[in-house]
Write a structure and sequence with these properties.
The radius of gyration is 19 Å and the shape is globular. An eight-stranded parallel beta barrel has the order 1-2-3-4-5-6-7-8, surrounded by five helices. Helix content is 43%, strand content 13%. The chain has helices at residues 20-24, 30-42, 58-67, 92-104, 120-133, 146-157, 176-179, 182-189, 219-224, 228-245, 249-259, 271-280, 287-298, and strands at 7-9, 47-49, 76-81, 109-114, 136-142, 163-169, 192-196, 263-267. It has 313 residues and is α/β, with parallel strands linked by helices. The protein has one domain: Alpha-Beta Barrel (TIM Barrel), CATH 3.20.20.
């Protein structure tokens, strides 16, 4: 099945520990999200990214309510093994996957990720068996630096399994994976690069500025509200670029990520966000626009590396 040019993220779906309410200040569930899912599928955006750790199963459970109603071959499911919440059984990776398979009511996951590089030597070897068993179609690694990516690839290759994708934080404000050579390496090696937080949890969407801050008391509000004076200058420039194409700042951020050869992940909780994403996928920015956007972003001087991320360089 062809992979769409944009992945839809579900970190903010459902509530609970590390879930949508705590991180995003959202409180959305099945009723509000059903039209969002339906609109995405109608637009050919059928690749959905989740993780057990998002709300400790809550995100997967909400997404599963919709995917179960689809023909399995019509939807692509991406979810993750998170080492930080692994149990102490003989095979914690298979056990965490089993929980995901049960929640989704399926016998396979399209792409399964090692969420964080807690111990590449320890966790990567478990993944090959999951592909060989048919329970996982593709393997990815997330938040890994270049050395860790190459080592994971070596471990999997020795078992006759390829590393299919890398998923790292990548946006106009945070290009660490590019500067570290990861984007070039992925391109040369035929590995997909998925860019998460392309909108910096909404800070680059054009919806927020110093007069309209992100939700108070949420993790994203605590992180980005102090940076809004610098960020809103970049967003104003993104608005100028967007005006030439008839698109919003959020769509500019997505179009930029696609122009860089990446597959952006955008978190969606509203039908309009899905429609905007589908439109952004059709926009081609010029090389000059890409360069000027990057210069404007560098001029902000902000660092948006997440607290969970190790430096890429």
């Amino acid at each position: 099945m062809k992979q769409p040019s944009i992945v839809l993220g579900t970190w903010s779906w459902g509530t609970g520990a590390v879930g949508g309410d705590q991180v995003f200040g959202n409180h959305v569930g099945i009723e509000e999200l059903k039209p969002v899912f339906d609109e995405a599928m109608k637009n050919g955006l059928n690749l959905w990214d989740s993780a057990v750790v998002y709300g400790m199963g809550a995100s997967e459970t909400v997404l599963a309510a919709f995917t179960k109603a689809c023909r399995r071959e019509d939807v692509q499911i991406s979810t993750k093994f998170t080492p930080q919440i692994a149990g102490d059984s003989a095979n914690p990776v298979a056990d965490m996957l089993a929980g995901s398979l049960e929640r989704f009511g399926t016998d396979y996951i399209d792409i399964y990720w090692i969420h964080n590089p807690a111990d590449v030597e320890r966790w990567t070897p478990y993944m090959a068996a999951l592909v060989k068993s048919g329970k996982v179609k593709r393997i990815g690694v997330s938040n890994h630096n270049l050395a860790q990516i190459k080592r994971a690839e070596e471990i999997l290759s020795a078992e006759g399994v390829r590393l299919s994708a890398v998923q790292n934080h990548y946006s106009l404000l945070y290009r660490s994976s590019e500067h570290a050579g990861i984007l070039d390496y992925c391109r040369e090696s035929g590995i997909d690069f998925w860019a998460y937080m392309v909108l910096e949890q909404g800070a680059l969407s054009g919806k927020y500025d110093t007069a309209h801050p992100l939700p108070e008391g949420s993790q994203r509000g605590d992180t980005y509200n102090p940076l809004l004076p610098q960020i809103e200058k970049l967003v104003a420039f993104m608005r100028t670029v967007g005006a030439r194409h008839g698109i919003s700042p959020a769509q500019v951020a997505l179009a930029w990520a696609i122009a860089k050869g990446t597959t952006p992940i955008i978190g969606v909780t509203k039908v309009a966000q899905v429609q905007e994403a589908a439109q952004a996928a059709k926009i081609t920015l010029t090389e000059a626009e890409v360069r000027t956007l990057e210069t404007a972003a560098e001029d902000t001087g902000v660092d948006t590396r997440g607290s969970w991320e190790m430096p890429m360089i």
